[in-house]
Amino acid sequence: MPELKTPQDLVAALGGVVASEDPIAELKRRGFTLSNQVQAGLSGVSPGRPVSEANRKKFAQTAAKAGIVRFHIGTTPRPVPRIAPDDYDAVAAVSLSSINRILAGLFDSFTIPHQIDFATLLEPNILNDLADALSIALKGIPRDAAVSDFQIRSAPTVTEVNGTDRMTLHVPFTLDFARLPNRTVVTSFTGTLNLVVQLSADVALTQPVDTAASITLTITIPPDPSPAAPSIDVDPASPVQPRQGATLTKIANILQRVLGRFIGPKFTVSPVIHIPGMQGLQFVIQHIDVRANSTLQGGLAVAGIRFTGGSEVLPNPAKLTGLVPEASRNTFIRIDDGFIQRALDAFRASGGLDKLVQKKADDSDLHIESVNVKFARNEIRIHMEGVKRDACLSKDVSFTILQSFTFRTRADRIEVDSFTDISVDTADKVFCYIVAGLLSLLASLPILLASPLFGIFVALFETGILVQFPDSSGGQDFFPLDRSIPGTELLPTISNLTSSVGDGTLTASFSADFKHDEINTYIYLRVLNSMLPQGAGGPLSDASVEVCDLDVPAPTRDDAKVPEEVHEEKVIGTPPKFIVSVDRTFEPPTTNPVLAKGGTNFEGRVMFSLTPSELITSAGVAVVTNTTEDFRTGKTTNTRIEREPVLERFPDLFFRISRDGATVDTHSAPDGFFLNFKDKRIGQPAQPHTVTVRLSPGAIATA
Question: Does domain 521-567+589-622+648-693 have CATH number 2.60.40.1120?
Fold first, then answer.
């Protein structure tokens, strides 16, 4: 039988038994014997606060997934992440075909308008310039006909202007010409207008960062379209056609300037990113660059993201070219190990890393002193240094762990191998490792950390085999798959996910698609103002609209059950020792909660999407106060207060509408209040719910 004569021999043999709850018994079962020196070393160590028997079993099961494990005496150098000062911390890309699906959703919801009344909405000088350009370049327009409505016939699509932040927006249109004064349409000009649009993401941060911080994502139509130029493709069947030899450049340029006021979806999102499983750690987006690129798979929109706390050197947009998803996929996300390293450093400095590891290990004596991450070609390395307090009697034990995940491509699959190297400072410390039950715990620690850190990159490879880090239940979807794309009724779906590791980067590629939303609630609202100059019932544009729940005062027949206020007392003890009193009271809210915010467009329209959880509100707080008094002296010896929100299953919706310093609430209007709202919709895209208000500058009123 092989004999383990020295502590060094024992260290070399431990890697094969980390998945055992009793490693010494397992070594003996495998035929090893222990020398007197080794047995004396083990018996000479007294455990301090060792790993519990239940946790030893749990960690043994996790350690079995750690792959090859090796213990050695000495130190392991820390891996250094690859950090270039002009790199982006993260890069995200999506195919233009996916963006076209979103544009179709925006068109279906009327977020992209279907009709623009040029005759009413354009200033006279612009309308005259357009009419002159049309009459010079086109034939078939009656002399007594004037420019009327511009209609967008179907959903626009985009193509890239390679290597720039511009794209071409192809808009199928009809421009009507009408005879005054009845505006009877007499002829039309039809075709496809090719506008130059700009992708932008403007970051507005607050100090400190709070809910007012925002990222505004826009597809705008810039007045200066360079380096590209707008153009018009005329339908062969258009009643109005270009004159022989005429160009449509001036018409296209005027429409480029005009339509920028009416077409340009704008969405606001938070710049704060939370890493799944790392509660309390947040990162704030500081800068975003966007480029549209041509690839063999089609056009691609690419966004480079820099977070706060990174390099002071501006990132280089040239690094956003040449990036493509994996074959047969249309979206990818790439992160740099430098960003992950900053995330870990900040998380450790905040104490969050210790809390996470202690919770997962069920051991408050574990402390992590450093964690380093390195992405290499087909490999992820996690280097961890820490200490177990009082592992053996009055003795702290330090540890160093290096875990490597290696990706290997086979003929029909990708395999992931794991190698764990645990360093022991001196040979005698291994006795404490064994007696305190630390072997399987140390082999499990990198896996417990990798779970939340890489939870968003669970790899679903081409064979359909799910490869993920163990115990990943604490993660969450990287994309909120239960929330629709802003301005649409489309829910995102993700499939065909694959991950790859390169020099300093980790990339996830997947297929993004969309399905019609059957989960959330939609509100399509049109606001009219009866006091606008153009007459009663004109659209109220550029107004702020909030969806609110009426709690102050609570409406009659509200579904929320307000608890009765009760006072109870009882005497404890024989003879009496204490008087225990219970007071149940109710605190009504002082404000009406805001569930969603938006703004009206030139038609007075605004759209809202609310998740089921956003529609569950509180009608106040139930307060239970437990007081214990000394029976003889009347002195209070203990007070405990419990507060519980009184949930309102169905909110009482109304709208708060503001513009130019004036505000009006609609809860007094028959068409502006929805008691115990249970439906999935208010209004439809083609038939929005209409409320009419009387909004005078500076006024605060109810409709």
Answer: yes
Residue 702, SS3 per DSSP:
strand
User: Which residue type does 552 have?
Assistant: V
Distances (CA, A) of 278 to 6, 275, 446: 42, 6, 15
* Tens-digit pLDDT profile for residues 546-593: 999 999 998 988 988 888 899 998 988 888 888 999 999 999 999 999
Exposure string (b/e) for 62-97, b if CB count within 10 Å is 16 or more?
bbbebbebbbeeeeeeebebbbeeebbbbbbbbbbe
pLDDT for 71-125, tens place per residue?
888 777 777 766 688 889 889 899 999 999 999 999 999 999 999 999 999 999 9
DSSP per-residue letters across 573-634:
TTTT-EEEEEEEEEE--SSPPEEEEEE--TTSEEEEEE-TGGG-EEEEEEEEEEEEEETTT-
DSSP 20-69: -SSHHHHHHHTT-EE-HHHHHHHHT--BSSPPPHHHHHHHHHHHTTS-EE
Distances, alpha carbon 631 to alpha carbons 33, 567, 582, in Å? 70, 18, 15
Collect all residues with Cβ–Cβ distance below 8 Å to 106 and sequence separation of at least 6.
Answer: 112, 155, 265, 487, 488
Element (H, E) at 420: strand 414-424
**What pTM, to 2 d.p., does this model score?**
0.77
Phi, psi of 417 (to 5 degrees): -105, 145
**Residue 659 identity (one-letter amino acid):** R
As a 3-state breakdown, the chain gives helix, strand, coil percent values, each rounded to 5, of 20, 40, 40
> Across residues 598-620, what is the average pLDDT?
93
Cα separation, 432 vs 47, whole angstroms? 7
The per-residue pLDDT for 459 is 30
Please state the φ and ψ torsions of residue 2, each to the nearest 5 degrees.
-70, 135
Residue 489: which pLDDT band, with cuts at 50, 70 and 90?
Answer: very high
> What are the residues whose beta carbons fall under 8 Å from the beta carbon of 203, sequence distance 6 or more?
214, 215, 271, 285, 286, 287, 288
Cα gap 527→542, rounded to integer Å: 10
Query: What local confidence, expressed as pLDDT, does residue 266 receive?
Result: 66
Angular region, 352: left φ>0, alpha ψ -120 to 50, beta rest? alpha
Q: Which of 348, 293, 352 is nearest to 325 (CA)?
A: 293
Compute CA distances 521 → 23, 595, 669, whole Å.
57, 12, 22
DSSP state of 206: -
Assigned token pair, 256: 């480029």
CA 542/CA 599 separation, integer angstroms: 6
pLDDT of residue 397: 84
- DSSP-derived letter for residue 455 is G
Among 264, 256, 265, residue whose Cα is nearest residue 193? 256
Kindly report, residue by residue over 634-669, the tens digit of the pLDDT. Answer: 898 889 999 999 989 899 999 999 999 999 999 998
Those residues with Cβ within 8 angstroms of residue 25's Cβ, 6 or more apart along the chain or in another chain:
none
Average pLDDT over residues 363-387: 86
Q: Is the Cβ–Cβ distance between 38 and 5 less than 8 Å? A: yes
